[in-house]
Structures are given as structure tokens and as C-alpha cells.
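Table S2 (text version). Query chain:
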Amino acid sequence: MKLGNSNRLFIVPIIAALVLGLIFMTAILPMVKMDPKNVPIGLVVVDEGEMGANLANTLLEHAPELVEFSLYDSVEMMGKAMDEKEVYGGLVLPADFSAQVATLQTETPERASVQIYINEGANATAATLVQTALSNIVTGLNTQLSGQILLAVQAKTDVIKEQLAPVLQAEGGSMLAQVSAMISPIQPSVVQDFANPIQSEIIKVNETGKLGNAPLAFMTVTWFVSLIGAAMLYLVGNKRTFSSKGAKLKFNTIQSVMPFIYAFVAGYMVTWYSTWLLGFDLEYFNRTALFLALCISAFMYMIFATVRWLKLPSIVIYVLLTFFSMSAVQLAPEMIPAFYKDYIISWLPLRYFVEGLKEVLFFSHNVINSYSIILIWVLVIAFILVWVKNLSEKTEIAETEEIE
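Corresponding C-alpha cell output:
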């Protein structure tokens, strides 16, 4: 019975719905179930006053579950941690923090200031989250400190009233007796300072500018260029016959060189397209293009090695990886569900691409960085696997060729 006439075809849509539904729902799980916890943030306390020390201890011991503070000795050390993407932001209490807070109860009040650092290049989503979290923490500190100041002001007011009580009571019901209700050491001009005693300055480091979405844009085109290139590379040699073993060796050699040429051309073309069509202003054009070329060659060989050993249907593995990567690589590890963090994101090839490209775009690093080195190893291993297959498979000689 032909398959086209079989009633079993009615089951296919149901199976497709079950399988594809599971795949796509699992793929978007990181975004839907985003659960940020213990996002690492730096803390620098330059202030040597009691207020700064107390505040630092409070933040270290009782920080919201969303963030986790790590204490650094200087802004420079915290900056290095940001460059290494160990922290996504930071809070700095300057040297005059306690002194400024103390002036709020004097005749010359001065609002205290803190600096909020945002490591924008590490992860765009985490940067937004950290900025909101730190701003909320400063708002909470304002509320707490404002309440403490108002209590101190009230205490001073009560002392003044007690000192003036004998005089005011002696006046009986005169206008002077009503002064007691009007006594307050707070000047109208400093009411706003009392309400918000701490002001914050937001400082962005490793800025992304208009390139915030560049890693995702480059990732999409780079991955599909690699998929198509690997498929074509396989198809051009599949079931091919040769006049001799030497001809096959020559073909395999050309086949092994072509991915590098293809990747080089594609890397520069994609980078140029990004400046022309998307308006990307790339500070390191050549670095970006060469990094893309390296990634395309690594991905092509990785996919090509797989289909050489497992045949063309195995390319579905990498198609599925596309969906599992799209949402996961946009989030910091601290923001995704434990399942994804422990079992998926650590080995996603596209994660190394995105993180490596950030190094080039936002951290002024070279093409060869810690992430590209991993991709080079992927390329080397895949290259070896391809040649093992080339040398181990039987050579099919064309029937028209006379065999001696």
C-alpha cells in the first residue's frame, strides 16, 4: 500500500505537534522562566567613616536575593573584574560619603553621592537588570537614611521646645505661646536633601552604544551561513566517483581548503553588510570580520564532520541547536533556569561565538581570545575527523576507467 493512500498520514500532524511543541517550548524556556538569582555585583568602599562601613556590611550580609555583592579594594580592581566579566556592575561609596551625610544636619548641608557602575558589554539583559536593582537599592537607602535623619531632627526639635517651654508657658495664651508648634531646625531649602539624602551617578563601562543587538544579529547570519556551507560541501562530494585514488585525494584537498576561503569571504561580506544595511559603526572592522571568518570555518567543519560520519540527516541536530541557542545566549548564566545552566548552555557552540564576539566588540580584545581558542580546537578536531573519514572510506572508481 502506497504511503500517499494510507490513513496513517492523519497521525503525522499530531506527531509533529507533539514533537515540535516540545522542542520549541523547551527552546524558549530560558526567556519564559527567567529567574535571576545571585547576579554578581562589585562593591567598593573608599569611605572610612562609620556610615560607609555599616552600609557595606548591610549590603554584603543582607543584599536582595537578586544580587550578590563582592567586596573589592579599589575601583581599579573592580574594573578588572568587569573586564573579565566576573561582575555585571558595581556600587562605589566615595571617600567623603560619611562626611557628606553628616553635613545634612548642619547649616551647610550637602547630599551624599554614590557611583553605580554598569558593565554593559558583559550582557545587555543583565546590564538593564543590574541598573534597576542598584537604583532600587539606592532608593531604599534613601528611605532608610531619610528616616534616621528625621528622627534626629525630631530629637533636636524636642530639646529646643523643652528649653523654651518655661518662657512660652509664662506668656499664657499670647501669640508667643504658639511658637512651640512652629519650631523646627529644618530649613525649607533643604527639605529635598532630607527626603533624598543620597544621589547616584550611573557610569557605564565597556559600553555597547548602538551595537547592543550586534552579537545576536551576527550570530544568526553566521550560523546559517555555516549550515548552508557545510551542507553544500557535503553534497558536492557525496556519491562522487573518481578516476583514481589520486583524483580523490586532490578533490578532498580542495574540499578541505574551500571552507577557509568561503569563511574568509563570508566573514568580510557579513561585516560589511552590517555597516551598510544595519548602520553598525564598528571600531574594529577587520577584527570583527576575521573573528566571523574563524567562527564560520569552525562551525562549517564541525557540521561537515558530523554529516560525513552520520550522513546528511544528522544536520537536523544543528538546526535544533539554533532554536535552543537563540534565547539562552542572550541571558547571563545567573538569569536562566538551573536545567539550562547545568546541562545546555555550557556546551552550546553559539555561546562561545557570542561571548567571543563581545570580547572583540566591547572589550577591545583581539581575534584570538579565550572563546575563539575553544573554537579553534573545535576546528582542529573536526578537520582531523573529516580526514580520517576521507582516508578510511573506499574510493569509488568510475566505471569507464580501466583498472589494471
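Notes on Table S2: Confidence is low (pLDDT under 50) at residues 400-404. Residues 83 and 371 are 14 Å apart (CA to CA).
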